[in-house]
Design brief:
This is ROK family protein. It comes from Candidatus Gemmiger excrementavium. The chain is of the alpha/beta class and 269 residues long. It has two domains: 1-76 and 253-269, Nucleotidyltransferase, domain 5 (2-Layer Sandwich), CATH 3.30.420.40; 81-252, ATPase, nucleotide binding domain (Nucleotidyltransferase, domain 5). The protein has helices spanning 2-8, 47-55, 64-75, 135-138, 140-153, 171-179, 183-207, 223-241, 257-263; strands at 18-23, 26-28, 33-36, 43-45, 58-63, 84-89, 93-99, 102-103, 211-215, 247-250.
Length: 269
C-alpha cells in the first residue's frame, strides 16, 4: 500500500523519507510497538520495526486518535490553537490531546483515552473490562443501541417507518425522527447528549483547552448536536471556568484527519 501510494503520486519510493501510520490501540510512539487493541483484538506487535524492515525507511506509528487529532490541529478545526482536544464519536470514543502544539502521549504512551473514563459507577460493561466508561454511553454505537432499545419498547414510534428493520438502525435514525417531531426520538437524543456533554465537561475541567473538536459521522448533525452540547457543558463547568468554556466545534477533515496527521508525525516530535 505504501509503495502504491507513492507510485500513484509519481514519487519514487527511494525519495520517501518516512512513513506515518495511525492504528487503534496502545502504541509506543518511540518504538512503533502496538501493545493492545480492545476493539480489533491484536496484541504485542512490533509494527514499526516490521515495516521498516520491509520498506527500508523510517516508520512512525501513532495511535489513530492521536494521528487524527494532530491532523485537525495542523490543517483542520483546531488549526491556529495551541491547546486542543479532538473527540471522535464512533464505535467507541477516540480522543487526542494537543498541549502546546505537542501530542500528549503519557509516559506509557496511553494518555488521552477519555472514552475509558468512568461516568457511571457500576454502569454498562465496556470492552476494556471496566464498567460505566464514557464511550458506552456517548459513542455513536451507544446511541444506536439506545435507539434500538427504545424502538423495541415502543412499536408506534416514527423511527420504525424510517428503517426497513431493526438491523438498519444507526446513529442517524433518532436524529432524523426527532427532526420530524417524534417525541421518543427526541428523548433518546436528549439523553444521549447529556452523556456527551458530561464527558466533555470532564475534558474541560481536566485540560481546559482552547478548542474541542467533535468528529465522527454524528458530527454531521452540525448545530443540532453542537448547540445543545455547548449549553450543557457551559452549565456543568460554569462555576469552575467562570463561564469561559472552550470553543466547541465540528472537526473539518473527516476521514482525511488521520491520514494528514500520520503524514505529519515527524513534526510532532
Amino acid at each position: 500500500l505504501c509503495r502504491t501510494v507513492a507510485k500513484e503520486n509519481n514519487v519514487p519510493f527511494s525519495e520517501v523519507r518516512y512513513v506515518g501510520i495511525g492504528t487503534p490501540g496502545s502504541v509506543n510512539f518511540t518504538t512503533g510497538f502496538v501493545g493492545y487493541n480492545t476493539n480489533f483484538g491484536y496484541y504485542d506487535w512490533n509494527l514499526g520495526t516490521d515495516l521498516e524492515a520491509l520498506l527500508g525507511c523510517k516508520v512512525y506509528v501513532e495511535n489513530d486518535a492521536n494521528a487524527a487529532a494532530f491532523g485537525e490541529y495542523i490543517a483542520g478545526g483546531a488549526k491556529g490553537y495551541k491547546d486542543a482536544v479532538i473527540i471522535t464519536l464512533g464505535t467507541g470514543i477516540g480522543s487526542g490531546i494537543i498541549l502546546g502544539g505537542k501530542i500528549l502521549r503519557g509516559f506509557n504512551f496511553a494518555a488521552g483515552e477519555m472514552g475509558h473514563t468512568v461516568i457511571v459507577k457500576g454502569g454498562r460493561k465496556c470492552n476494556c473490562g471496566r464498567q460505566g466508561c464514557w464511550e458506552r454511553y456517548a459513542s455513536s454505537r451507544a446511541l444506536t443501541e439506545d435507539t434500538k432499545a427504545a424502538m423495541q419498547e415502543h412499536g408506534d414510534t416514527l423511527m420504525w417507518k424510517l428503517v426497513p428493520d431493526i438491523d438498519h438502525v444507526n446513529a442517524k435514525t433518532s436524529f432524523d425522527a426527532m427532526a420530524k417531531g417524534d417525541a421518543l426520538a427526541k428523548q433518546v437524543v436528549e439523553n444521549w447528549m447529556d452523556y456527551v456533554a458530561c464527558g466533555i465537561a470532564n475534558v474541560v475541567n481536566t485540560f481546559e483547552p482552547e478548542v474541542i473538536c467533535i468528529g465522527g459521522g454524528v458530527s454531521n448533525q452540525g448545530e443540532t448536536l453542537l448547540a445543545p452540547v455547548r449549553a450543557r457543558v457551559q452549565k456543568e463547568t460554569h462555576d469552575i471556568t467562570g463561564g469561559r468554556v472552550p470553543e466547541i466545534r465540528a472537526c473539518e477533515l473527516r476521514n482525511d484527519a488521520g491520514v494528514i496527521g500520520a503524514a505529519a508525525l515527524e513534526s510532532s516530535i
